[in-house]
Amino acid sequence: MIEAKIPTPNMENTVHFPLGQKKGLRIIFMGTPEFAVASLNKLVEAGCNIIGVITAPDKAAGRGMELQQSAVKKYALEKGLHILQPEKLKNTRFLEELRSLQADLQIVVAFRMLPEIVWSMPPLGTINLHGSLLPQYRGAAPINWAIINGEKETGVTTFKLQQEIDTGDILLAEKITIRDDENAGELHDEMKEIGAALLLKTVKGFVEGSLKETPQVQSADPKHAPKIFTETCKIDWNKSVDEVYNLIRGLAPYPAAFTFLDEKKLKIYKASKELSITSKVGEYKTDKKTNLQFACTDGCINILELQLEGKKKMNVEDFLRGYHFSENK
């Protein structure tokens, strides 16, 4: 098994381990997408003893259906880390290998739901980095829903895993301001770096014994972050201009909010809003040069970046130059 190299103790940001633990806490990291790479990289650069990386199996994708590696696997290969890719987390062979690694602590960032036999295995338990200020926005898509709901603030939280999803004791949290024009992709990129730093701070707290576990107390008005489905992405023009604008931001750049233009699906990646109504709710108006807007109940959405079904993504000016509208427009 190949382990991450541990920097000398005087290196900046290095995790200082207690006496008697020459290599420090034995850590297993679990994650799959790019969001998780920032955290793994932060831990590796700090000299944490990453004894294993668990990520999703390679999957066939693209026109050629070639096997694609997860972002975490690509990073782990570059760093020479030991990799496990179980199809099923309750597989006997996987559990035996996991147990043989003798981890002190497991860390989960953007992975999948773990069975109790996995998350309860290390003596220090398993910690998770979540993209919200828990207990608010428990669930699969906290970044998207915070923006969709028009929040001005969100954050990242590290917590101990328990049986029910996102309910464990909170370890650390940090607030993040959401800009009025920020979309989910931009917040994602900001959050992954802030979250990585918070995760490293959490690991240092384990090493120093300074962490205080705080039970979650759900508010009287809990906000949830369920998985995003196709119906979530369909724009309802009978809503307010702020609601539609936030939906567009909250789903950009992926999976993207959509409507229909002349019976063709139109994805909207970027827009602006104005509090004036120039046409009936749900109808569009265009000058066929620089402006394409749809009416809501109390204003209009001006589309800036879009993708029509069967076409490539483009700005509105390029789209209008080549699109032939129906005769009544």
Structure described in brief:
With 329 residues, the protein is an alpha/beta fold. It is 26% helix and 24% strand.
Structure characteristics:
elongated, seven-stranded mixed β-sheet, Rossmann fold, 24% strand, Methionyl-tRNA Fmet Formyltransferase, Chain A, domain 2, 26% helix, alpha/beta, disordered N terminus, 329 residues
Report on this model:
The protein is built from nine helices and 15 strands. The chain has helices spanning 34-45, 71-79, 92-100, 116-119, 142-148, 184-208, 230-233, 241-250, 316-322; strands at 26-31, 49-54, 59-61, 66-68, 83-84, 105-109, 126-130, 153-160, 170-177, 257-261, 264-274, 284-286, 292-295, 300-308, 314-315. Strand 3 (59-61) and strand 4 (66-68) form a beta hairpin. 37% of the residues are buried. Residues 1-14 and 16-22 have low confidence and may be disordered.
Secondary structure elements and their pairing?
Layout: E1 26-31, H1 34-45, E2 49-54, E3 59-61, E4 66-68, H2 71-79, E5 83-84, H3 92-100, E6 105-109, H4 116-119, E7 126-130, H5 142-148, E8 153-160, E9 170-177, H6 184-208, H7 230-233, H8 241-250, E10 257-261, E11 264-274, E12 284-286, E13 292-295, E14 300-308, E15 314-315, H9 316-322
Parallel strand pairs: 1-2, 1-6, 2-5, 6-7
Antiparallel strand pairs: 3-4, 7-8, 8-9, 10-11, 11-14, 12-13, 13-14, 14-15
